[in-house]
Amino acid sequence: xxxxxxxxxxxxxxxxxxxxxxxxxxxxxxxxxxxxxxxxxxxxxxxxxxxxxxxxxxxxxxxxxxxxxxxxxxxxxxxxxxxxxxxxxxxxxxxxxxxxxxxxxxxxxxxxxxxxxxxxxxxxxxxxxxxxxxxxxxxxxxxxxxxxxxxxxxxxxxxxxxxxxxxxxxxxxxxxxxxxxxxxxxxxxxxxxxxxxxxxxxxxxxxxxxxxxxxxxxxxxxxxxxxxxxxxxxxxxxxxxxxxxxxxxxxxxxxxxxxxxxxxxxxxxxxxxxxxxxxxxxxxxxxxxxxxxxxxxxxxxxxxx
Length: 305
Description:
This protein has a single domain (7-187, 223-257), classed as 3-Layer(aba) Sandwich (Rossmann fold). Helix content is 43%, strand content 13%. It is built from ten helices and eight strands. The protein has helices spanning 16-27, 39-51, 66-80, 103-130, 143-147, 153-173, 199-206, 213-218, 224-235, 274-284, and strands spanning 7-10, 31-36, 56-60, 85-88, 136-140, 179-185, 246-250, 253-257. An eight-stranded mixed sheet has the order 3-2-1-4-5-6-7-8, sandwiched between helices. Helix 1 links the parallel strand 1 (7-10) and strand 2 (31-36). Residues 6-194 form the Ketoreductase domain. It holds the Pfam family adh_short. This is SDR family oxidoreductase.
């Protein structure tokens, strides 16, 4: 198995995408530290891995605090002898438009997604460097962090920040042989289940049926298991040369997201004053203004609800 002898932590892995990641890592031979805030949910996740012949333990704690990160790494080392892989998946949602978003709505999402990713990666990377382990850091992003999404100021900020941190960590950890990548999943989850556009796909998945090809191919929208293979690949020795990347996956589609680059450049002797911008902005760069948010094609008639 590709991860035989490796040890992984997967935060937020009691259910959904995180559980699929933990199960796939175990299927490929890794011992897994499962993490969730609910004790029974975590226990059920561990039981599912053990029932399939894998090895797992649970740490019940919310990510964000440094103490949780320390607890997770300590559990991996004490139970399985080492740590090779960290997948930061834990997250929460507090969706609402900007003018209705409270301080608590913003802080809660930033604390779990952004600070939780930072504290866990800091603890894991410190351990890996000190023990000369060429580890794997895999952080979970979102299309919202790449493109923005109505009602998700907090979530967009956190997920964009995660990708920015990954690029920085790829530079800082390269000498130690530790890779850092972001995965951008598109899959049926509790969040997408509330979106009418995805209803036919979510209903098919819940019934154990294949999703319509329109979703799997055209939209790159699939199941949690469709994402899990990429997590295991990035955790393996085969991906030793892949770092600092944002990689999208869902359904039948695999994507490599570009790093931000200037799409239009213009120069003016003496610089760009207000008057110069008012006169020439449109001609200089205005034709390359970028779109925001995701744009979906119309649903085929037979898939409309």
